[in-house]
Amino acid sequence: MKRPFLRLLAVFLGSVCSVHALPPAPYYTLYGTVRDDVGQIVVTQGAEVILLKGGVEVARTAIDSTLRPDQNYELRLRLDHARATTRLYTPEALATDGQFTVRVRMNDRLFLPIQVTGNLTAGKGGERVRFDLTIGEDSDSDGLPDLWEEWQLYLAGHAPLPNGRWDISLLGPAGDLDNDGSNDLAEYIGGTYAADPMSQLFLESKERGVNFWRFEFPRVTGKTYQLLRSTSMAPGSWTPVDFALTQGGVPAAFHRAQEAGPISIFVVPLAGREFYRLTVQ
Question: How far, in Å, CA of 208 to CA of 169, rounded?
Answer without folding.
Answer: 44
